[in-house]
Fold this protein.
Amino acid sequence: MKFTLRGRFGLLFFFLNVLFFPAIAQPAYKISGRITDAVTGDAIPFANVAIKGKTAGTTSDENGNYSFATTQFGDSLLVSSLGYQTRSYPLRRTPQQTIDAALTGTATKLQEVKVYAKGGDPAYRIIREAIRRRDQFDPDQLTAFQYESYSKVEAYVNNFANPRRKGRGMGPVGRLLSRLPAIYDREGKPAVPVYVSETLSDYYQRADPHKTKERIRKSRASGVGISDGGVAAQLTGSSFQQYNFYRNYINLLRKDLPSPLGQSWQTVYKFHLIDTVTVGGTVCFQIDFEPKRPTDLAFVGTAWIDTTRLGLSQIDARIDQRANINFVDEIRIEQEWEDVEDSLTNGVRLPVLTQLLIDTDEPTPNAPGALVRIYVAARKVVVNKPQALKFYEPPLELSENYSEKSPSFWQSHRPEGLSPDELRAFEVVDSVRNVPFMKVLGEIANLTMVGYYPLGPVHLDVGPLLNSYAFNSVEGHRFRLGLRTNAGFSRRWILGGYLAYGTRDQQFKYGMNLDYVIRKKPYTIAGLSKSYDLEQLGTSAENLNGNTIFAAYTRFGTLRRPYLQESHTTYIKSELGKGFTQTVSLRNRLFEPLFPFAYSVNKADRTTASQFRATEVTFETRFSPGTLMIQSDNDRFSVEGSNNPVVTFRYQLGLKNVLHGDFTYHRFSLNLRHSFRMGVLGRTRYQINAGYTPSTIPYPLLYIPLGNETFFRVENAYNLMNFFEFVTDRYVGFFGEHNFEGLFFNRIPAIRRLKWRFLATGAVLAGGVSTANTALIPPTNETGQTVLGFQSLNRTPYVEVGYGIDNIFKVLRIDAVHRLTYRNNPNVSTFGLKFSAWVNL
């Protein structure tokens, strides 16, 4: 890929110079200065500076200094900040000029009030009282509320214009990006927009029982590598932008951040009363807060609490590089809270305006960074009018005609307050995404995330990339080609298939599927599939639980107890509402072992067989309250953002003499997954599995726990158990992990800069096999080969425990795992180091 890009650079630079040289050749103006309080002379941080009527501008730093360069020019410079009067300063048409601004406060001066508080700063007394009264102001305490939501998301590539070390100029990527259309960021540096979207939706929430719903009415999105604006609209709407500071924790970027108005306020934060100012016509206490330990994952910022009712009026909370979070230079949330309609008597408020800024840290000193801005406004608020429970299903709904690209529509539905720079982003991003270099980057990113590569006008995707090649003891070199249709073919019909070939066994394997979306409200899909492929015992799709990387890896190396399976399946799946999803399927499969296997057909005459056919009906019920289902072009996936457990129950009924099935049997299984916060101690995740098979059937149809003989860690596997080490027909399993996050390492001066996180893990499996199932194994098969048996668990459960360090070099995790039982089994490891790596915030 590097060679391909390098070969295109010359032609690409030529076209970029032709297209964008006129914009670069315009005269540049640099404006700088310092913003201070006109009375005290103190610096005013984070003040807004902009050229009147233009898109150029910036924000002052913590010392009140600002500086930006622009090719735009106007007659005056506007300077504004919360709590101060906006001032205008004339501009001169000169290459450089310095404008120092002195702002006059709009604060309402109160009569002198002496507060005598025990134990220090009076801010603690105010915050304590505000928390005591939070039930009066917390939106979650309302019977119900609803509003019209407008959200806008922008993503930029920035910091590419910085000179490199030793005085050298920008690198090739920086030079390329500098020739693209850009918008100036708050520091006056160019930023290239790579994604921008607008979404108009209706958001609903009720308290008893807790239910939420978002109906996305209209959306438009444009960006590099973005092919489905519907997914972007669902992921960037109000459902994922709920930042209620009256809750104990703010969930942001899959992190639990303690709120300064939550239960941990006194444990985590320090507070300082700064001043009294007027915010939205209300006199408020201005209180600064910061974490007691700078490396703790917590906010630093300012809250404005009204002086009469002690309710939150406004908050500015941010996280910087000192906190234990990766790849982030700064996260900033600004919110404005207002009294909601019909609630003046009880004082309930809602955040009517939320602005989120995420400025990423550059991975290397010379690499570009990224900047994400999210703007959410609430209008037409209605409170205490709950809808019927059925109304809230599904929790996230995308209108059939959601796509709206007309600028006039958005101009009439867009709230006030967006800057010209923000409005211009749509025009600029369309130019950026059509540049060949950016198209290539978008295709690479899409292939990495989705695994499929679109073939253009034929409406087919090829993939998945991970399954294209493998090498194992049975097939030798395995090559696989897969195709599927995309939304360009049909939004109802989904066709797919693959063909694989092994150079050693010289056999073709195949698979094909046909699915049809019956309806989208409630979502119901049916389909059928047929496959003939190589498998190995213990690594079935049921065990792998959707782990595509581990599934691809299991096709490498020596396959333990491999077999060929011919399978025919038909199914129907429907979302029944209230978090329930029901699946009913009928499967018929033929088991052809490639290892010495047999089972007793008739003990009286000692008849055995080495192949069997099973026909089974499966009823699966999944209960996942709080889970949001995201609908893409032809796929549907879940986003589990709540602390509610997810329960899956499965019953399988084997049918003898139906489609030549050889057995009648019953199999029951239950799975529970849950994750919850333990305050400052971190987050716990656990999973419980249980199953029971009261029938007598060959052991390939029993439960085979998922082992892991690889060097990397697998979340839902017993990581020191071998493949096919145990077989059970009744079992109870437990997986647990507790992440202490920075609780320990943040307190060690020598290593807290590394931002390591400590974890503790454990796994237990108890179970056994009935005597009847064990007795099905004969000594030899029809050809006289000794039949391989299996080991089952006895009264002692299988136990392994571990501990690890996460966030090494920001991407690596190392776990030390100890096996405590069955340590004398052949070819087992009693201790192991397991590695895993992913982009982890």
